[in-house]
Specification:
seven-stranded mixed sheet; single chain; Beta-Lactamase
């Protein structure tokens, strides 16, 4: 436990501090922060006004925008500003017995002096919160400033008073609440993580928390096993609220559920969806959890070029979406940005089009689009004898069938995952609608084979309706500020490259031979690309040398003549559609981006 600096009776003069608190208003606080950013951080004077406008636009406090979303300063620095403004000293821990916690802004505790007397300590993360105190109580305590992020741990132990405080507080230390989880979700959002992994290491009796950042897993935190199991229990019960079919006592089968975090709880500009996948260990005590982080994003100003598609692909996209009927499918592995590509396509359509979308969940906000999310509901069987409540799922097929009667021009079906959804998509195409969807397959040329063999379509139905197939993966982009050119041209081709299974492999290998490409900086990156988590000695480097991700993609225009001989395997389709121009393939797209210095050679391993 960190010791609070020793204090004499007049080290914290209540009268002077009370006067400062009473004279404070929002203008004084924001002006002090602005001065700190300008004088200490070297920020332009007008920048703080931009932060204020941004906070108002996304309905957040300016402190959340500066400290959590923009990372312009830390909560440690913010506390330093408050300390100089008010004269209230800093504290690292709450001492005494906690009497009350007021909505995460004020904590009141009692300090026993051992002689039958006591004093009151009041802790706040924001000095304006002290105005919440009753006037008759404001002069009776000592005041301290805590960092805001400390409250997430302290609130877990709040409300303990009486002789058994110490025992109960120790027991509570192994328990967690949603307030304990919010900082991890916020960190994932700030750093751009797509997934949170929580899993046990049985031999070490711990749980580890990892983020998937730029496609790689990085360690961010470690918990004792008991606290890790408590965290998992909170997630399961939380997911039950949005997933009626989830059985919280089921430990023999994997569980899938949905969690929605309110924007005010995680300090973000929208609510955040988490998709939970949980697999129990055979002991029924520990479990492995993966959370997909889905924060709704406004992509109204985004173009296909921003995703990484080059000019020779964007022209094919423009032609395909101008059609009045047909099916366009975007494929790729989980987490490859398929939905973002489709939504970017939809965003570019004329406002005169009626666009209907069904997704699970809604990841991006399409201006002018009408978006629906799949859901479950519980139907009560009523008072009939022996009647039981039943769970109903309103999924992709139900919405797709309803869309036919909703006067659409363009329909987006979030995922084609079963025969009913696929056949409905084909019917919509036949009746004069443009249908877009996503599919899990490794190459665009394999789409016809999957539709026929896995989903029961006829070859003729595929030939008449499938107009375009897209395949993509996401790879790390080199940081443009610190990337370095290779000292020597590429000599020997790495052995792993020779194992690439693409018809154009030899063309690719010949193209890269004796070329000098770019590589990431060997240092800890630069201010643009360096991502860290933690502080002080606990600070850890999450990534360096790379900044964001880009698409490696291929697009194929399917024509009825490709199906005339009835051969639809991936091998035959590659021979038919790529022989004309292999520069449109995903492997040659990788070469073009290597030549431009966008990616390094290692990014090609994503295609193995």
């Amino acid at each position: 436990m960190t010791n609070r600096p020793s204090m004499t009776p007049d080290a914290c003069p209540a009268a002077g501090i009370i006067d400062r608190i009473r004279s404070l208003d929002r203008f004084h606080v924001e002006n002090a922060i602005s001065r700190y950013l300008v004088e200490t951080k070297g920020m332009a004077q007008e920048s703080f006004g931009i932060y204020l406008d941004r906070a108002k636009h996304i309905d957040q406090s300016v402190y959340s925008v500066i400290c959590e979303i923009e990372n312009a300063m830390t909560y440690e620095e913010l506390r330093t500003v408050f300390e100089s403004l008010t004269g209230i000293p800093a504290a690292e821990v709450v001492e005494g017995r906690i009497r009350h916690v007021n909505t995460g802004r004020l904590i009141t505790s009692t300090i026993e002096d051992g002689r039958g007397g006591s004093s009151t300590h009041v802790y706040a993360w924001h000095p304006m919160a002290l105005k919440d105190l009753e006037k008759e109580h404001i002069g009776k305590g000592r005041f301290f400033l805590l960092r805001k992020d400390y409250f997430h741990n302290i609130e877990v132990k709040s409300g303990f008073s009486g002789p058994t405080d110490a025992v109960r507080a120790v027991a509570a230390d192994t328990q967690v609440s949603r307030n304990f989880i919010y900082p991890f979700i916020r960190d994932a959002l700030v750093h751009g993580a797509t997934d949170i992994h929580i899993f046990p290491l049985d031999a070490q009796d711990i749980y580890r928390i990892r983020f998937r950042l730029l496609g790689d897993l990085v360690d961010v935190h470690t918990l004792k096993a008991e606290k890790g199991r408590s965290l998992v229990n909170v997630l399961i019960n939380w997911a039950k609220e949005m997933t009626p079919s989830l059985k919280t006592d089921e430990k023999r089968r994997p569980l899938d559920g949905k969690i929605i975090c309110r924007k005010e709880d995680v300090g973000w500009h929208t609510d955040v969806d988490l998709r939970m996948s949980l697999i129990w260990k055979p002991d029924g005590t520990n479990s492995d959890v993966a959370l997909r982080v889905l924060a709704k994003t406004d992509i109204r100003n985004e173009k296909l070029q921003d995703l990484g598609y080059l000019e020779y692909h964007t022209g094919m996209f423009a032609t395909a979406v101008s059609r009045n009927r047909g099916i366009i499918l975007v494929t790729g592995p989980t987490g490859s940005g398929k939905s973002r590509t489709v939504n970017t396509l939809l965003t570019g359509l004329p406002s005169t089009k009626c666009i209907l979308c069904v997704e699970d969940p809604i990841e991006y906000q399409i201006p002018g689009g009408r978006q629906f999310q799949t859901f479950e509901y519980v139907e009560d069987a009523g008072s009939e004898k022996g009647g039981k409540a039943s769970i109903h799922v309103v999924g992709f097929p139900e919405f797709a069938r309803a869309f036919k009667r909703h006067d659409p021009d363009v329909i987006f079906i979030g995922e084609l995952r079963d025969e009913e959804t696929v056949s409905t998509a084909v019917h919509l195409s036949k009746t004069g609608h443009l249908v877009l969807g996503t599919l899990h397959v490794s190459r665009a040329t394999q789409i016809p084979q999957m539709l026929v063999e896995d989903y029961g379509l006829s070859v003729d139905a595929v030939a008449d309706n499938l107009i375009m197939g897209v395949n993509q993966v996401l790879v790390k982009k080199l940081c443009s500020a610190c990337k370095e050119e290779m000292e020597e041209p590429l000599g020997n081709i790495p052995e792993w490259m020779k194992k690439l299974r693409y018809p154009e492999r030899d063309l690719f290998l010949d193209s890269i031979r004796e070329k000098r490409f770019f590589v990431p900086s060997l240092s800890e990156g630069c201010d643009v690309c360096r991502k860290t988590i933690g502080s002080g000695g606990a600070r850890r480097l999450l990534s360096a040398g790379y900044s964001g991700r880009t698409v490696l993609g291929e697009a194929i225009e399917f024509r009825p003549r490709h199906f005339s001989d009835g051969k639809i395997s991936g091998y035959h389709m590659e021979a038919k559609v790529e022989a004309a121009d292999m520069s449109h393939s995903i492997l040659m797209d990788a070469y073009n981006k290597m030549a431009l210095g966008t990616i390094d050679i290692d990014a090609v391993t994503r295609l193995l």
